[in-house]
Design goal:
CATH superfamily: Aspartate Aminotransferase, domain 1
Structural class: alpha+beta
CATH architecture: Alpha-Beta Complex
Shape: flat
Number of strands: 4
CATH topology: Aspartate Aminotransferase, domain 1
CATH class: Alpha Beta
Mean pLDDT: 92
Length: about 100
């Protein structure tokens, strides 16, 4: 898979994951306070996207099932897009301050 990815995605992007204290509620609060980043369940675009898997893609799983696949209540995934890095960081920081 790695060789295929290198061949097909010469300028691939990055995904950053982090855990918020406060679990599900903090995850929702963080996403609700983002101003520039898009909020979707899907990752990968030219724009930066934030996702809270515990309440989106893995929301119908039990707590035990989420734990088995390492989806914690406060997990946030950010797919970094093409915006200026300062704009991305500023949006993340202002949303974190409200959690």
């Amino acid at each position: 898979q790695y060789n295929i990815a290198v061949k097909q995605m010469k300028n691939g992007g990055g995904i950053v994951c982090f855990e918020l204290k406060g679990g599900l509620e903090s995850g929702r609060t963080f996403l609700n306070n983002l101003q520039m980043l898009s909020v979707t369940a899907n990752l990968g675009d030219t724009r930066s996207i934030a996702s809270h898997p515990a309440s989106t893609t893995h929301g119908k799983l039990t707590d035990e099932e989420r734990q088995e696949v390492n989806i914690t209540p406060g997990l946030i995934r950010i797919s970094v897009g093409l915006e200026h890095v300062d704009d991305i960081l500023n949006d993340i920081m202002q949303a974190l301050e409200k959690c």
